[in-house]
Amino acid sequence: xxxxxxxxxxxxxxxxxxxxxxxxxxxxxxxxxxxxxxxxxxxxxxxxxxxxxxxxxxxxxxxxxxxxxxxxxxxxxxxxxxxxxxxxxxxxx
Length: 93
Fold this sequence. Notes:
The protein is built from 2 helices and 4 strands.
């Protein structure tokens, strides 16, 4: 497999004090790949995408982007990583 640009290792996400909405995510996305995210309403697709473009931080686990571990990176480091990520929203207005 090509070098990983995204790695999730036992990543979990919860909003506030509620139950985890994402639990124990383990995956790698290789450079040059083309990936699809599908699932029913309420499955956590939007929450996962927010983690990928760094709008949300994981509650637990290890998240690596471009070879850098970002789960607990300083807030000041985030803009430099966000500039390397392109997002096209479904409703672009």
